[in-house]
Amino acid sequence: MEEQFEIAELIAQKIKGSIDVTGLSRLQDWCDREEANRTLLERVESTDRQMDRLEIYAMFDKQRNWDQLEDRLSATKTVQWPVAQYFRYAAAVLLPLAIVYLFYFLAFRPEYKDLSEVEQIITQPPKSVTLQLANGEKLALNQPTQSVIVQGRAEITNDAESLVYKTQADPADATQELIYNELTVPRGQHYQLELADGTHVWLNSESSLRYPVAFDAKQREVYLTGEGYFEVTHTGSPFRVHAGDIDVRVLGTSFNVSVYDEESMATTLVEGKVQVEVKEEGSLVESQILAPGDQSVWNRQELQVSQVDTEPFTLWKEGKLVFSNDNLHDVMMRLARWYDFQFQFENEAAMHYHFTAQFDNQEGLLEILTLLEKTAEVQFKLKEKTIIIQ
């Protein structure tokens, strides 16, 4: 999928005349690989208008067919209605309604602001990632300079982007008491963490992880809310992630766990092997072993496992948001966590519009919303500090 987004970017640049020599060479190699690729490029270039990259992304969506594509590229069609025949009856019905509506609109219309002001009104100074120590003390971590926190035998290094735990504790010492810290990442932020055993964890926006400062020899257990990506170091002792109703048990592997939605808790395996267990009130309900590329989803009724492209579920840790035929409601949910805003649908039908796109954290919210407007019959307005979808 990553290549599809790259090619879509290059096609958009070629149409707009901003592609460089390296990009042209990459695009030519892609066309030479398959005749279908060359055909797709020719069809796009044959249109009489420039296309935005989200429109080109959509052309790679396997669930769209060529008939839909033709409709999008063809000129607007005009349908002739026998207006004169029905005008007399329509006027009698619609004119009073129009008067009532006009009065209501003028008297009670909401005060919407232009979308161009979205970043000035909504974007706030970033909230701080916080570390709560075992004694209850809370520390703000978003500092520009590196600092070292000493906690018992543990030395914790903070460089404003990640925490690294180093400990002199002996994992074989059964007498040592486990003490827990909790890392909390607010909306609009991401953070990295290296646990005492060398395991790397990426925490997404609006997430938290509770974990011991040092692990013992028997087991390694952490507690997740929100979303986290784990690269677990193999030590010989099991590593277990507790997240809502699911437990993920591993020895050494890479996987993503998302429990933002309690009705759809997902585990996506990139490498290795994991066992996903569903527990309710402490009792095991269901269990599945995942292979690389598997995704399990617990929907409160059953644990469903399917093969997926893992990139849309894991590239967030690299500062990228990937949407693959996702509906606009899910798109707005993820953008809201990314940029820290509230939203509301006035046009409920728009919730079911689907998008295929990729954004990174260098792009502003205004740019993203403008692109979304250009690729669907949807408009964004501001009402106080809430984005309204019309």
Automatic annotation (TrEMBL):
Record carries keyword Plastid: no
UniProt keyword terms in alphabetical order: Membrane, Transmembrane, Transmembrane helix
InterPro entries: FecR, FecR_C, Ferrdict_sens_TM
Record keyword Transmembrane helix present: yes
Any Pfam family matching the protein: FecR
Gene3D superfamilies: 2.60.120.1440, 3.55.50.30
Limits of the Protein FecR C-terminal domain: 320-389
Signal sequence, renumbered to the chain: none
FecR protein domain residues: 183-275
Transmembrane spans: 86-107
Domain of life: Bacteria
Protein name: DUF4974 domain-containing protein
